[in-house]
Amino acid sequence: MKFLLTSGGINNKSIHDALVGMLGKPIADSNALCIPTAMYGHPWVGPGVKAWEFISGKEENPMVDLGWKSVGVLELTALPSIGEDRWVPLVRETDVLLVAGGDALYLCHWMRQSGLADLLPSLQTVYVGMSAGSMVLAPNIGEFFVGWTLPNGGDEALGLVDFAMFPHLDHEMLPHNTMAAAERWAAGIQCPAYAIDDQTAIKVIDGAVEVVSEGHWKLFSP
Questions:
Q1: So what family is this one in (predicted)?
Q2: Per-residue model confidence as pLDDT tens digits over 65-101
Q3: What is the greatest pairwise CA distance in the chain?
Q4: DSSP bridge partners of 209
Q5: pLDDT, tens digit, 9 for 90 and up, residues 104-125
Q6: Fewer CB near the last or first residue (10 Å), C or N of the chain?
Q7: How far apart are CA 207 and CA 158, in angstroms?
């Protein structure tokens, strides 16, 4: 897969251009599936209006409302109760997965339970994550971000990339997401760790990592 891991969505030209380059064709010719699952596990989001806003492209962070040829919904909590023949071909045929933010460990749990985590490495799809949707691919997320807890505890995520992410750096609505907090977070991470603001994304193609930014970010080495 190709990964475009954002903090706040596709919200500037540099990130938008990176996405189009990864798709290899215009957004208007590309089919998308959006995954809202992470939202249900976060106390500030949950089911209800915010999930609908994400799915319908009405939220402030550009993801679903970019002008896709089509947009469908892939709800991970439903997948264990239906046959793989009902959803795996759909995922294989789509051009891009749009993965919402929320709670990273809740999303991780349902990616594993649904079988999507096992499927991801074999896909040719572009994966676009936002916040928790990006963090879930790391080896672990760090105690700073643990909210919903996994059945076996801990902060282990999917490990599909070899670095961790601290999103929403210096966000005006998140006063605890400071660079000092990111430095403390990174001290407990046993892999490279990026602190990124909402104008920054991390592009990963065949293991090659590139930061795409019109804002500010910092890489912490273990």
A1: Belongs to the peptidase S51 family.
A2: 999 999 999 999 999 999 999 999 999 999 999 999 9
A3: 47
A4: 204
A5: 999 999 999 999 999 999 999 9
A6: C
A7: 15
- Contacts of residue 35, Cβ cutoff 8 Å, sequence gap at least 6: 73, 74, 75, 76, 97, 98, 99, 100, 133
Tokens of 182: 């990111």
With b for 16 or more beta-carbon neighbours within 10 A and e for fewer, the 158-190 pattern comes to: bebbebbbbbbbbeeeeeebeeebbeebbeebe
Residue indicated by tokens 């760090």: 142
Quick: pLDDT tens for 157-176. 999 999 999 999 988 887 88
- The pLDDT-based confidence of 45 (bands split at 50, 70, 90) is confident
Q: What residue ranges in 13-119 does DSSP mark as E strands?
A: 31-35, 70-73, 96-99
Question: What domains appear along the chain, each with residue ranges and CATH number?
Answer: 2-159+198-212 (3.40.50.880)
Q: Which two tokens stand for residue 176?
A: 């605890």
How large is the average pLDDT for residues 46-57?
91
N- to C-terminal Cα separation, the chain: 26
What span, in angstroms and rounded, lies between the C-alpha atoms of 40 and 101? 10
Say how far apart CA 79 and CA 99 lie, in whole Å: 16
Asked if residues 20 and 214 have their Cβ atoms less than 8 Å apart, the reply is no
Cα–chain-centroid distance for residue 182? 19
- What is the distance between the alpha carbons of residues 167 and 147, in angstroms, rounded to a whole number? 15
Query: Does this model's pTM top 0.85?
Result: yes
